[in-house]
Write a structure and sequence with these properties.
CATH class of chain A: Mainly Beta
CATH superfamily of chain A: Nucleic acid-binding proteins
Shape of chain B: elongated
Radius of gyration of chain B: 30 Å
Shape of chain A: globular
Strand content of chain A: 25-35%
Strand content of chain B: over 45%
Largest sheet of chain B: 8 strands, antiparallel, barrel
Strand order of the largest sheet of chain B: 12-13-14-15-16-17-18-19
Radius of gyration of chain A: 16 Å
CATH architecture of chain A: Beta Barrel
Distance between the termini of chain B: 114 Å
Low-confidence stretches of chain A: 1-38
Structural class of chain B: mainly beta
CATH topology of chain A: OB fold (Dihydrolipoamide Acetyltransferase, E2P)
Helix content of chain B: under 10%
CATH class of the domain at 30-132 in chain B: Mainly Beta
CATH superfamily of the domain at 30-132 in chain B: Immunoglobulins
Strand order of the largest sheet of chain A: 1-2-3-5-4
Mean pLDDT of chain B: 93
Distance between the termini of chain A: 30 Å
Number of helices of chain B: 1
Structural class of chain A: alpha+beta
Number of strands of chain A: 6
Low-confidence stretches of chain B: 17-24, 641-645
Largest sheet of chain A: 5 strands, mixed, barrel
Oligomer: heterodimer
CATH architecture of the domain at 30-132 in chain B: Sandwich
Mean pLDDT of chain A: 76
CATH topology of the domain at 30-132 in chain B: Immunoglobulin-like
Number of helices of chain A: 2
Order of helices and strands of chain A: HEEEEEEH
Chain lengths: 155, 645
Amino acid sequence: MKRNLLTKPSGMIACLTSGLLFAIVVVAPLISQSADESRVYYDVNREVTLSGTVSGVLSRPMPGMMWGAHLLVTTTSGTLDASLGRWGLMGKGGFSVSIGQQVELTGVMKTMNSKEVLVVRTVKVNGTVYTIRDEQGTPVSPQARELIGQKGDGL
Amino acid sequence: MNRRVWRVVLAALCLALIALTGCSSSPTIVTITATSGSDQTMLIRAAFSAPLVATVMTNGKPTIGTTVTFTAPGTGASAVFADGKNTDTETTDMNGVATSTAVTANTAGGSYMVTATVSGATAPASFSLTNTAATFYSFNLNGLEVVNETKTGYNYYALAGSVAVDAKGNVVAGEQDYNDGNGYLSPQPSGDAISGGTLTVDATGQGTLTLKTNNTNLGPPGSPGTEALGVQFVNTNHALIIQFDGSATSSGSMDVQTLPAAVSGNYAFTVSGVDTTYFPRAFGGIFSVTGGAVGGTADVNDHGTVSLANAISGAVTSEDPFGRGQITGISINGETLALNYYIVGGEVIRIIDVDGSGSGLGSAFGQGANASGASSASLGNSVFGVEGNSWATPYAGAGMLVPNSGAGTFTGIADEDEQGTFVAGSAISGTYTIASNGYGNLAITNAGLQHLTSFGLYLTDPTLNLLDPNNASGGGGALLVDLDAGYEGGTGMVIPQTDTATTSLTGNYAFGAQEYSGAGVLDGWEFDYIGQGSIAAGALTGTGLVSDPFGSIAAVGENTAVPFSGTATPDAANVGRYTMASLDVTIVSGSPVPLAMAIYQASGGYLFWVDEDALTLSLGTLQQIPSGSRAGLHARSKQTVQRKN
């Protein structure tokens, strides 16, 4: 994960503190997941929840990124690449978000192409939770959102 | 009363008796004439639209209750009646009219006479009928739909059918089923009727098949009801196909049908598509058909639920003249499916899910000796390919396996791309089991193929050719269903690896692939291509058709005469594997789009190839065009000028 360098000492202390917290909350599950990561695409037991400010919205991936839409989110630990999948920003039931907005993301940290990415399952924006993937990590299409809504089923 | 009066009375009585009894000195004249039903023309194996009607008269008056026998020729072009025989006996009604049962053309083309005879008539009535000769093709493909982009966006879709093409390349008739699981479904149980169109290919076997249907929801907006498929014949019986009209993009195959053929015996099968909540789904297994009853075992990977060895049961209806029928009663994850099938031959059928909600496409292959005598030893050195469907998590992989049947283990090499994250030439190993009925599984236990670890494995008849079902040389193989959570909708096949010599990779080849893209201009993510060319010293040079309605690698549209070129470099450490660092697809002159390919050789005739790029991935095949057969590739088609490679 790319990190912003902080130059002020106080900022550095804050960075170290938050970095330690990040290491406990995020990196520890990531490391412990590594052994199993190749066996299970999305392990809901290894989910983390992060909050931050949207610093970028990508409807299409940059080279080297996981396919689909992405949010770049500035957290206390740096900038996070959050994968929203194929339909995260698309169609009925998708959500819109702007740079500068606060979001809360729940997902599983993965390493892909030697880069860390949060595979997002849910996004909370303006108090509303949007489901991006199901608990197996399968992206939820607009068609699925509509059909599940009609049937009253859950994900 | 005097004698004169008596004579007059006697004469009058005599005349009266003659009149009443019909006694006459003139002969009785019985005639039979063809009243209607003559001069009909019908496709072979199809029912004529009208029965044959003959009228019997005796001395100019209707003959009631007499027997009329209709007789069609015993050999050659002919017809059969409702009981399947070439004769039909009927009784005249009060108008002297005899009407045959339904008349169906047999399998031979040509004109002929059917006679109607009655006792006493000196000459039969004759009906002139003509059977239109045609070749029947089964076609099937699935992909991503462009039309019907509702508020929810593009949809998955499946299309399967049968089309009869005459010797001049005219589409005579056909049937098809189309289903996107989200509003566009061909009417059931009839399906769509195909009433016309053309098959036009050049001498390399490349061209288009247009299908005029009665379903105006399909096809591009400018030609409602008319679909266009790109075709690339490998041989006269087998072609790779893509949808090629901008209404959708997809990949599949087209094969000559051997009809009639009953669906009976033991089959291995897979079906991939979307479920009722529009999540990707795949299922597969084995089933048997006995007297129309279906029973079997299926593995299901559906919306996070991987369930193994589910008992399935149902029934199969008999096929119609296009080899189409229904499979009813099979329940998957609590949903009873409506499935239609199209027969390719007695051991190969295509299956399409025609539920109003949910969709899917697949195949069933006969199991032959592997229905009861399979074991771990039934799987030999093999090449495999697997790919998610157009609605699944995008991934594709191919590789080769060396089983150790005694230990139930395997080793191998494979390439796989998951949404741009790929492994190339990755060592894989694991375990597999095969029961005596051909039902089995395969597990990759060394994490060599990223998240792909678990597959259902279903053995087919070792005499079949899974890629080219009409080819008697094949060696069988197995079908695969991906059983990894999060990878629902993935299916594939395993075919024997019999020849890894680099010198065998030479000659003319048809090729194609179903590509997924992470960077289309529009929101869609699929493009498809087919083509043909020659390979010499590993260098491929060819031309093809590229369907790219979402602008994944070029401007949005259908692209013809697209140059393809690249060089396959043998992997010295893994004989049978090649890399093609850059398969250049040149849609825009001077701006080739390079695709990085890995190739696995089953034999000189059949190879899988995968695209492993950061923003594109695919699975496809290279299939050798038999030496000297190019001239025959445009048989049964309208012909165009041959292109230069």
